[in-house]
Amino acid sequence: MPNHLKIGITCYPTYGGSGVVATELGLELAQRGHDVHFISYAQPIRLSGPSANIHYHEVEVSRYPLFDYPPYDLALASRMAEVSELYELDLLHVHYAIPHSVSAMLARQMLAAGPKKKRLPFVTTLHGTDITLVGQDRSYLPITRFSITPEETKKTSQSGALNMLKRANASWCMFRISNQ
Q1: pTM for this predicted structure
Q2: Is pLDDT at 88 greater than 90 in this prediction?
Q3: Order of strands across the sheet with 54-58?
Q4: What ranges do the domains of the chain cover?
């Protein structure tokens, strides 16, 4: 396991708590010598300027007449896979199950099916609104459960990803929702 990790972080880039937590974690990891790649539709607010080991990759969402709402989750999955391949990321750390964990899962599946058969572990940090979203709209429960369930993580060796973050001396948090 390398001492120097290449980590992709996806979060909402706004002033909210999850964006602050994710950005501060990324800044701390970069300060400790890891390459941190933020992947989002806008640069996180807390990234005030150029920093060593910090990279930003914008997710461009195209307008298409068929869709009333552009499919950000699909554009994000494609960008995650692209950045992972180009920069040889070791893992993704995503904040929020919807849509980030689902997009990471799709990116991982795309890379595994690609010519290089790349394995891309990911870690999901859940925040309070992950739970309140599911509580307010039960239609999100199946996809939320699927994207973070232990059965899925066993297939992706997510515990290995958690160990990589631990080795990087990062603070991390993950709640698991079981099917039981």
Answers
A1: 0.81
A2: yes
A3: 54-58, 35-40, 6-10, 91-95, 122-125
A4: 6-167
